[in-house]
Amino acid sequence: MPDPKKGEQLVLLTTRRDANAKQLAEASTGVATINLPKKVFVLDKLPVLATGKTDYPGATALAARLLEGGNVDSD
What we know:
Elements: E1 2-3, E2 7-8, E3 11-14, H1 21-27, E4 39-42, H2 56-67
Parallel strand pairs: 3-4
Antiparallel strand pairs: 1-2
C-alpha cells in the first residue's frame, strides 16, 4: 500500500481474531521492522476468487479502503 513517507507500507489482512501488530513483531525476532506490517485488519473472510484462490487485487483494494477509513462491505 502507498505510504507518504516510505513509498509503501505493509498491511496484514487476516481472519485470526487475536492478531495484532505488536504480537507479530514480538514473534518475528530477527526480522527488520520495515518488513513487518504496521496495520493489522481482522476480517470475517478474506477475498477469494471463484476458484477459491486468494483474490490479490481484491485484497489490495480492500486494504486501501480500510486504510482510508472505509468499511469492509463498500464496493
